[in-house]
Amino acid sequence: MTTQPPNRPPRQGLNAGDREQLNTVETQEWLDSLAYVFADAGDNRAAQLLEDLDHYAYFHGAPITFKQNTPYINTIDVEHQPEYPGDAETERKIRNIIRWNAVAMVIRANKASDGIGGHLSTYASAAELLEVGFNHFFRGAGAGQDRDLIFYQGHASPGVYSRSFLEGRFDEARMNRFRRELSPEGPGLSSYPHPWLMPDYWEFPTVSMGLGPIQAIYQARFIKYLENRSLKPKGDAKVWAFLGDGEMDEPQSIGAIRFAAYENLDNLIFVLNANLQRLDGPVRANSKVIQEFEALFRGAGWNVIKVIWDGKWDELLEKDYNGLIVKRFELLVDGESQRYAAFGGKELREKFFNTPELRALIDGWSDADLELLNRGGHDVNKIYAAYAAAIKHKGSPTIIIPRTVKGYGLGESAQARNVAHQVKKLDFTTMKNLRDLLELPLTDDQVEHLEYYHPGADSPEVKYALERRAALGGTIPARKVEYPHPTVPNGEFYEEFAKGSGERTVSTTMAAVNIISKLLRDKQLGKYIVPIVPDEARTFGMDALVPRIGIYSPRGQTYTPVDSGSLMAYKESVDGQMLEEGITEDGAMASWIAAGTAYANHGVPTIPFFVFYSMFGMQRVGDLVWAAADQRARGFLLGATAGRTTLAGEGLQHQDGNSLLQAYVVPNLKVYDPAFAYELAVIFEHGIQRMYVDGIDEFYYVTIDNENEVQPPMPDDGRTHEDIREGIIKGMYRFQASADKDTKLRAQLLASGPAMGAAQEAVKLLEGYGVAADLWSVTSYKELHQQALLTQRRNMLHPTEEPEVSYLAAQLSAENAPGVLVSVSDYIKLGADGLNGHLDRKLWTLGTDGFGRSEAREELRDFFEVDAKHVVVAVLYALLRDGQVKGEVVAKAIADFGIDPERAAPVLR
Q1: What pLDDT shows up at residue 424?
Q2: What gap in Å lies between CA 508 and CA 493, rounded to an integer?
Q3: Which of 39, 274, 599, 682 is the most exposed place for a label (fewest CB within 10 A)?
Q4: How large a percentage of the chain has pLDDT more than 70?
Q5: What is the average per-residue pLDDT within 611-637?
Q6: By the 8 A CB rule, do 218 and 208 touch?
Q7: Is 450 left (phi over 0), alpha (psi -120 to 50) or beta?
């Protein structure tokens, strides 16, 4: 493909001046031609023509540099800007009222309790962004399947509270209890969005930076999952996430954006509030952070809408025929922009309009006129246009990047200052200036006393705000828990696991998969089960589920898998039930949270089972686990290949000895380390009943290991299964009593999870040293410890009453369980050590403190001193300390087992 050049003199024969003149004329001809195409054929034809030219130039070797950025102007030009549908003046008054009350609330709180904190500047920058949404876009519960989910910027919570105050949802007394949840006068307002503290109001905790974006992505994906599986009617619900530009430095903020595009999440809208400042100063002072984000998200496949300049700039752009303003925009850096926001029109005149040509564009403009040149994120017309375009966009997620000013309207002490994020107080003069700026009818005395302003329930402002919310489905934020309580299988459903595995060896991981598989087949509950794995289904033995329930994919399966025709064929489907997330624990955990909160967010009681390497789960996703707890998520986290010594050959990085303690610190997380299949069945049944029938806001971390062993039946020694079930849930029960009732030397061995095998062997070895040992299965040190602490507290606060006895103390009393106490765990000693102080004698503990090794199980257990021989030595030493045997007995055992007493402790190696 070639074309003949026009009849012009050869360019190389011209002097520099003539060449430049020719270039100018030629450029203008191309621009005029493109303008004609725009006018005659429209935008799409112009875009197609440019694409054809691009291909032609590339084919002929033109050195075209790929650019992911568009010019530093608004994506939606003024010609394509829709008419604003609201009452602009009334909405302005509403914003002003909310701005004032948000500031007054925070300052009042700090006057009442110096240092209580709060944030002014984030909401000041985001007021227009939120209010356009509240008035025209955000749909509440009344919208049914079209109800939106909104992740608010955490530091903007004072503004959200102040809107609820205007709507009549909060009174002045409650506003005065901002950050005072323990007030005896009534409920307070939490510092940030915390569903645990305000369960009828907030839905998502967002102030732990970076967790909002990744959770919003997977919430949007889970909506599609529910719809494609017919668990939720298909609708037009959107997930809105309001984010900060500084927040985007967190890896979780951007770690899943490609996934969002791959999943075609056109129900997801990020609003990235680019006020150009983080906590300590500018985000990218030497460049333009908005351009950085545009390139990042466009490259990931998102629809990007920039809202940079307000309508006043349109006047200049319209008469700027030579594009000088746009060129000057391109030279801006954020540090320079911050100065203009802080110092106003005079600075803008001197530093921005810094050439004769630029100064000519503002000829006749005063500094006051220049002050009106604002950022697009404070122009409701620009914001509305962006939001309207976003909700209509199909095929990919959208990010809107509005440019705002941090601390907007808060005066010289806060607006666009580096300290803006930390400002909690404003002086009287600043508050008077703010009142005047907001045009509020408050006297100086009212300003001095920081009085709230409410125009009255019958005022036009309140009526308008409530009418708009009614039209959009009701006031928000609002968390309403209404879901059909599922029928949970009774104990008979789990009886097969109480019978044991016979001669067949089965790991507890495989037992867990078998239970999940059976739950999936249940006619009532099966559809609600959501298995989740981070690319480890085969490792955990879950590959057999894939051909039966399918892996969820919005595309279905557009290829023939290599194993098609086999019983274990890889199956992806639009209505697939398993979520196979790839190698991303964070993503899988965000999916688990979406499934675990669906009972509240969608009225669908999905029950997620997230199966992951125990070491790569709790250790890696601890912040998300805490967020799950805050938002009252329900479901099961299964730490597979649990313990420090079960994952033979994998070594330091893979072997888990600490996840039980990491899980312990989450208040509403139940933590179990079962040894047997029937214990797992009991825990699952109990958890489903409590979470989904009784409606208790808790969730479960359960360890499962990969060591194949014969699974014993539930003990049949005269106790009822109900008694044993109670012990499993409370944290311990006697698994096996010694048949020797006459031996003087006695011991009680406590074992859990993978350490049970060593304890069982130690019971037999101890017989050779004349010691009779009972064996206890400890399913949860956390349950035992917490119940003991509650008993201790109760007794301390009721000193004149008969002391109660904890479950732990009653089970292991000298009368019920005579002899020394020794525990062994595949986890660090600290878990079991917590029981000391709650017993009538010392508990000696063995555990796996230290780094892992790439060894087989037998060598690992010897290294960590948790195998049977070390259990025997620990029991004999406990008897020595109790004065029941001589030191020579312990020394003989050490020699018998070939233990080197001088070798370094594993924690030091």
Answers
A1: 58
A2: 18
A3: 39
A4: 97
A5: 93
A6: no
A7: left
pLDDT at 591 over 50: yes
Q: What is the DSSP letter of 348?
A: I
Of the candidate ranges 214-228, 319-333, 406-420, the one whose mean pLDDT is the lowest = 406-420
Bridge partner residues of 613 (DSSP): 640
Query: Among candidates 291, 247, 272, 249, which has minimal Cα distance to 421?
Result: 247
Q: Could you tell me if 578 and 562 are in contact, meaning their C-beta atoms sit under 8 angstroms apart?
A: no
Query: Which has the closest alpha carbon to 408: 158, 120, 102, 101?
Result: 120
Region of poorest pLDDT, from 116-120, 196-200, 326-330 = 116-120
Helix H or strand E encompassing 373: none
- Phi, psi (degrees; rounded to nearest 5) at 572: -110, 140
Tokens linked to 692 = 């989904």
Q: Considering only CA atoms, which of 419, 500, 444 is closest in space to residue 709?
A: 500
pLDDT value of position 1 = 42
Rounded mean pLDDT of 275-284?
A: 84
Beta bridge partners of 750: 776, 823
Amino acid at 364: G
CA 110 to chain centre: 30
Question: CB within 8 A of 55, min separation 6: which ones?
Answer: none
Strands annotated E in 527-581: 529-533, 551-552, 572-573, 579-580
Any idea what DSSP says for residue 692? I
Distance, in Å, from the CA atom of 368 to the CA atom of 424, rounded to the nearest integer, reads 29
898 burial type by CB count under 10 A (0-12 exposed, 13-18 middle, 19+ buried): exposed
Order of strands across the sheet with 529-533?
Answer: 579-580, 529-533, 607-613, 636-640, 699-703, 669-672
d(CA 554, CA 556) in angstroms, rounded, equals: 6
Average pLDDT over residues 782-790: 98
Contacts for 100 with CB less than 8 Å, ≥ 6 apart: 434, 435, 438, 440, 442, 452, 453
Q: Tell me the pLDDT tens digit for each residue of 678-725.
A: 999 999 999 999 999 999 999 999 999 999 999 999 999 889 999 999
Q: What is the pLDDT of residues 424-437, one digit of tens each?
A: 578 899 899 999 99
Alpha carbons 727 and 716: distance in angstroms, whole number: 14
CA 52 – CA 60 distance, rounded (Å):
12
Q: Say if pTM beats, i.e. exceeds, 0.85.
A: yes
The C-alpha atoms of residue 489 and residue 495 are separated, in whole angstroms, by: 11
Residue 36 host element (H or E): helix 16-41
DSSP state string for 769-814: TTEEEEEEEES-HHHHHHHHHHHHHHHHH-TTSPPP--HHHHHT-T
**Beta carbons of 660 and 831 less than 8 angstroms apart:** yes
Residue 420 has pLDDT above 60, yes or no: no
Confidence check: pLDDT of 565 > 80: no
Cα separation, 891 vs 909, whole angstroms = 24
* Token couple for 747: 């011991």
Sign of the alpha-carbon torsion through 440, 445, 447, 452: negative
